[in-house]
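QA checklist item 7 of 12: single-chain prediction sanity check.
[x] sequence parsed
[x] length recorded as 299
[x] structure emitted
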Amino acid sequence: MTDIPFNRDFKCEYDVIEDVAPNLRRIVATNRSPFTWTGTGTYIVGRGKVAVIDAGPIIPEHVASLIRELTGETVTHQLITHTHQDHSPAARPLKDATGAPTYGYGPHGAGRFEQGIAVEAGGDQDFVPDFTVRDGDVIEGDGWSFECVYTPGHTSNHICYKWREADALFTGDHVMGWSTTVVSPPDGDMGEYIASLRKLLARDDATYYPTHAGAIRDPKPFVGALIEHRLEREQQILDCLKRGKGSIADMVEDIYVGLNPNLIGSASRSVFSHIVDLADRGKVTADRALSIDARYRLS
């Protein structure tokens, strides 16, 4: 498989605001896990009148630390990349404390609703942005501005935010510095995810700031490697089907040798997302409706 240049040396002090770059600070929540790495990093752009990006999870210590550290400043905007439970829920208490309105693509599943597809329960079902944004919209504040870059795939409502003054892109979970991104149907869509990666590859942003782990300083090779990795995974699935391994369980066992048992469910969802994409493109068929438990074969 393609070697993705992950950086897993990220270190942080929890619930303390740290300077990351000029006019950029970050506070990391104590929600370390196999899916969040060291935890959710909430970013603060500007001084005095600031924007908060991904307020984070509802962890009382995290919310209290964020509000305390922002005392004396005015939060004029809250930007939400997407509505997973480790990204958007803390926007509510932060708004209660500061009055700061929220900006995002829409509620959980918004990108699917537009296609007439209902997503399963999960995510932050309570989040509704005060201001809905779309690809190419510009959000302006005091000395800073953001271009909205719609990147569906991880979720259907995922937005990246280009900090124009710093030539930096806040990538949420679309591109993470420490790991590949989970893509889980029906809200997640592998075809859209790869298309969104290609969209970023065509851009010239100098730096990425993911919500989990540290900055990505050379984005183009990184994104190129992510795309190659996904295409190689697709080929592994096609090879499994050629050898008669028609169940997702068999594919996961064949592809993810030595996988931590706690991650089998996530790997199965990832393979399923590739299967759905392949079926949409007419390359794979199933013995019933597409599902984790169906059996698949080449068309």
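[x] summary fact logged: The two ends are 25 Å apart (CA to CA).
[ ] second reviewer sign-off
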